[in-house]
Amino acid sequence: MLVNSVVKVVKHSHITLFADDMKIMHKIESINDCHKLQSDLDSICCWANELGLKFNVQKCEQMTYSHKRNNISFNYTINNSHLQIIDQKKDLGIKFTPNMSFNTHVENCISSCNKILGLIKRSCKHMTDPDALLQLYQGLVRSKLEYGAMLWDPDNNLWTHKVEAVQYRFVKYLFHKENGFYPVYPEHISYLEMCEALQLLTLRSRRKIQKMIHLYKLTKGSVDSFHLFDEMTKNILPMDLHHYSTRHR
Questions:
Q1: How far apart, in whole angstroms, are the C-alpha atoms of residue 182 and residue 189?
Q2: What is the pLDDT of residues 208-222, one digit of tens each?
Q3: Contacts by residues 67-72 (CB-CB < 8 Å, ≥ 24 positions apart)
Q4: Per-residue pLDDT tens for 76-122?
């Protein structure tokens, strides 16, 4: 495609393209880095003008990702128009924030899934087919809970529990549908036991499996993410085999 030729004019920064969406990024450690990024933006503008293309400046934004309190401030421009500075951005359904914390995204996702689950319960009040209810949950709720999960997978027990609580509410509801009572009377039935009875994995287990599958595909070259593979191999400690016996016992 003609648009893909833009990568040839970007000399200092990293650029990504998806359909009609373009992102350009640069690691900023000094004001000189800011000028390099601006230089690439100017080159992109010249490239676009030569092809008769125009950028909608109203839809062009700048965002800084950092854990620092004080970052280098710079007003980037496109065709002499300043870019809007934002502190959050929803991209392909995932909400990004400057500190790369996905808590806001996860919280919004949980809230949305609980509303959908509530709608299913109200709409299927007289439905008795457990398989149909399970398919509704998997298609409308679980699929939303797992979208982009490899990116935002919670790294603490609090958010892991909050995400898992959505599925817990569903399996408890389905248990009541099938048995006529909730799994707390006459004796408590654990969440894991209910999942096992329904042949459901926990959401946390499913996310782990998804990541392992992605890692396997990455090492086999079936995923076009060479930069991720390079970063992964950099973090693998070399093993000194001289200290290990290769004899079988």
A1: 9
A2: 999 999 888 888 887
A3: 67/99, 71/28, 72/28, 72/30, 72/31, 72/33, 72/34
A4: 999 999 999 999 999 889 999 999 899 999 999 999 999 999 999 99
User: Which two tokens mark 167?
Assistant: 């599925």
DSSP string, the chain: -GGGGGGGT--SSEEEEETTEEEEE---SSHHHHHHHHHHHHHHHHHHHHTT----GGG-EE----S-SS------EETTEEPEE-S-EEETTEEE-TT---HHHHHHHHHHHHHHHHHHHHHTTT---HHHHHHHIIIIIIHHHHTTHHHH--SSHHHHHHHHHHHHHHHHHHHHHHHSS-TTSSS---HHHHHHHTT---HHHHHHHHHHHHHHHHHHT-SS-HHHHHHHHHTSPPP-GGGS-----
* Amino acid, single-letter form, for residue 196: E
Angle, helices 103-123 vs 157-179, to 10°: value is 10
Domain range summary for the chain, segments of one domain joined by +: 2-86, 96-211
Tokens of 219: 């090492």
